[in-house]
Specification:
With 291 residues, the chain is mainly α. Helices cover 72% and strands 1% of the residues.
C-alpha cells in the first residue's frame, strides 16, 4: 500500500462520517434514508483533494472536513440524477441498486436536490473556513462550478451530443468534460487556497489536467474495465454510439494522453515543492485505478 493509498483510506471514512452526520441531523423521511444510502462508499476523491489543498495552506483537518463533506454531497447529488431514466438510466452504482431503483424516481430527484442544498449548508457553517469572506467565496465558487456554467453545462452538452447525428470532435469532448467532470475537481483542489484567500491558480491548473485525465481513464475503463470492480455497468458509451476520447484516440492514444496530463498536473504543483507529494500521487492514481 502506497502513502497515497493509506492517506485516502484514512480520509474517506472521516469525510463520509461528517456527511452522514449532517444527513442524520435532518428530519426522518424516505428522502433522508435515500440520501444516506447514496452517500455510502465511493473513493471520496474530491473530498480528499479538499483536505490536501487545505493542508497545503495550513488549514486544520477538522475545519476542512466541512468543505470535503460539502463537495461529496454535491457529487452524490450529480450521481443520483445522472442515474435517472431521463439521463443515463443506470440501475447500478457503487455495486448497489441506484436510488430510483431502490425507491422511486421522485425520491431520487428529491434526495439529489436535498444533497445539493446540504452542500451549501455545510459551507455556511462558522467552522467551514477561517473568515466569513472565505466562506462566502467557497459558496459562490461552488455554485458556479456546479451550475449552468460548470457541471450542469457539461451534463447538458453530453445529453445534446447523444441526440446529435454528428459525433463530437475531440475539442468539443474536452470542453464538455471540463464542465461535467472537471469543474468539481477544480473547486475541490482550490478550496484550501480559497479558505486563506491565497492565489488558487497553480491548483486550478493542476485540477484541470487531473479532471481530464480522470475522464479519459473512465473512458478506458468503460471499454476494458471489470464491471464487478467498477460497481456499475460498462461499455455503455459504445452501445450508445457516444464519442469518447477512446473513440478519437484509440486505447493506446488515450493512455498516452492521460499520462501526459498527469505530467502536466505534476508540473503545476511545482510552487508547493515536496509538500504536494500526495497531490502528485493522486494524479498518478486517477489513471491507474480500476473503478
Amino acid at each position: 500500500m502506497t502513502e497515497f493509498d493509506r492517506a485516502l483510506a484514512d480520509a474517506a471514512p472521516r469525510i463520509e462520517a461528517r456527511l452522514q452526520q449532517a444527513i442524520a441531523e435532518l428530519p426522518a423521511s424516505s428522502v433522508r434514508d435515500a440520501m444516506a444510502y447514496a452517500a455510502q462508499g465511493g473513493k471520496k476523491l474530491r473530498g480528499f483533494l479538499v483536505l490536501e489543498s487545505a493542508r497545503l495552506h495550513g488549514i486544520a483537518p477538522e475545519m476542512a472536513l466541512q468543505a470535503a463533506a460539502a463537495i461529496e454531497a454535491l457529487h452524490v447529488n450529480s450521481l443520483i440524477h445522472d442515474d435517472l431514466p431521463a439521463m443515463d438510466d443506470d440501475d447500478l452504482r457503487r455495486g448497489q441498486p441506484t436510488v430510483h431503483v431502490k425507491w422511486d424516481e421522485a425520491t431520487a430527484i428529491l434526495a439529489g436536490d436535498a444533497l445539493q442544498t446540504l452542500a451549501f449548508a455545510l459551507l455556511a457553517r462558522d467552522d467551514a473556513a477561517p473568515t466569513p469572506e472565505a466562506r462566502l467565496d467557497l459558496i459562490a465558487t461552488l455554485a458556479q462550478a456546479a451550475g449552468a456554467a460548470g457541471m450542469v453545462l457539461g451534463q447538458t452538452q453530453d445529453i445534446e451530443a447523444e441526440k446529435s447525428p454528428v459525433p463530437l470532435s475531440l475539442e468539443a469532448i474536452t470542453e464538455l468534460q471540463s464542465g461535467k467532470t472537471g469543474a468539481l475537481f477544480a473547486w475541490a483542489a482550490c478550496a484550501g487556497a480559497r479558505m486563506v484567500r491565497a492565489d488558487p491558480a497553480p491548483l486550478a491548473a493542476y485540477a484541470q489536467a487531473l479532471g481530464l485525465a480522470f475522464q479519459i481513464a473512465d473512458d478506458i475503463l468503460d471499454v476494458e474495465g471489470d464491471a464487478a470492480l467498477a460497481g456499475k455497468r460498462l461499455q455503455k458509451d459504445a452501445a450508445a454510439g457516444k464519442a469518447t476520447f477512446v473513440l478519437h484516440l484509440g486505447l493506446d492514444g488515450a493512455r498516452a494522453r492521460a499520462q501526459a496530463l498527469v505530467q502536466e498536473a505534476h508540473a503545476a504543483l511545482a510552487p508547493y515543492g515536496d509538500e504536494a507529494h500526495l497531490l502528485q500521487q493522486t494524479a498518478d492514481f486517477v489513471i491507474a485505478r480500476r473503478n
